[in-house]
Amino acid sequence: MPGIRLSEKITPNVEEHASEKYTAKLYAIHRFDKAHLVMLIEEELIPREDGIAMLKALREMESEGVEKVRLEVQGGSHSGEQYLIRKLSEEVGGRIHLGRSSGDFSAVSNNIYWRDQLLDLIDRINQYRAVLIETGMQHLETVMLGYTHGQAAQPTTYGHQLLAWSLNLGRDVARMRAIFERVNMSPAGAGILTGTNFPLNRHRTSDLLGFDGPAINTFDTILQRDLEIEVASVIAIHGYAMGRQADDIMMWSTSEFGIIDVPDRFCGTSSIMMQKKNPQATQDIKGSAADAVGGLMTTFMVEKGPTGMPMLDRRYAGMAITRGFDHAGRNLKWMIEMVPALEIKKDLMRERAGAFWAQATDIAGALVSEKGMPWRTAHQIVGILIRYSDERGFAPKDTTVELLDEAAIEYMGEPVNLSAEALEAALDPEHFIRSRTLFGGPGPDEVRRRLPEYEAGLQSDIDWLTRVREAQQASSDSLESAIDALVNAG
Hints:
- By secondary structure, the protein is mainly alpha-helical.
- Helix content is 65%, strand content 3%.
- It has helices spanning 26-42, 48-64, 66-73, 79-88, 90-93, 102-137, 158-183, 202-208, 218-223, 226-252, 280-302, 314-341, 346-353, 360-371, 375-392, 401-412, 420-427, 429-434, 444-489, and strands spanning 143-148, 151-157, 260-261, 343-344.
- 40% of the residues are buried.
């Protein structure tokens, strides 16, 4: 306030401790206030009766609504102290900040918020992976055209592609689990970089806050901000995966592709073009993926410069990360509902899979298998055959062994004499899929053999999440029990 260090009241928009800037983390700040008080009382660093009075007051705050009260009293990360001073006097409430700084307030609340958001995001990703696995297994024989370079490549199945999406998301979870282990260390007691000469019990505070232990270097845990960049990175990488899936759905639903139909509840229309059915949800998912990358760049630039310089603009990175978590949760909620509800036009998918020479590699394969040709020779002959198709206007289904022989004669001066049965099988997209029986291939039987591995990977992540959440709940219960014991004894 004016008259202490500074002579003027700070301009409102410059105020770094406005509670609105901390809204997403106020619950974490509140928990830190309680755990810090319990530790201060137990270590006899503040008068016992004052500490108990403050704990009771914080419980009263909870009955009124933590976020509501802290937004009213203002002070951001220091809103608990402001509340306690107003309620109990500075003689009592002014004791809570012993051994703390805005620095460890920020780091502790960030780590609590990040770990909680990571756990929620992992939970929702796991739900979506389960949907993808279940839906994918229903479409192991739904043959469709696969693309590379935007061109027809090879037949695949819709189910195999959905299962690929689930594995991509499984790697997102693996990255998040790894980051969680680094985030779940306690900065509490580190102050602004050197801690304090008061004998704080950092291990006790860490336990009460549900961390795996106190960070071993007070400088590192406060002033090295690579964890913030890492959290922003994993949000951006996950956004990329979801954005690509959204891209596929949008492409498949266009008039030109027309192989799926998106439920109306995920679409919008046009104020002038009444025929339009725009897949709005997928557009938003794609847009939020771009926003997540922007958030990552913001986080990088916020941390640019010498250690400890500057600090206050970190809130811009925090806002970007909060927005990224919010969008990621929303996107997953949409896709969990949308993917099983997509209308899949199987007949059109099957027709397209055989219409653009995507099965050409199997014709060359038949020449290798039946005629003992080198792969490159077979490749060249089939390339000539496809050029004939373009020049003469016949479709793959109209190809004959005579045309194949003509291509062979042009290339090497003699026919190949492939049997009509072998050519017919090679031209069949469904046969193409059934023949892909190699490990990890799209053949339905092979995918069914791999199903336990898809399920085991998902179950491992579900079990990990359950264990971590149980540990977090036990820590929360321990904090409340410690407060009960002090309040009741007092």
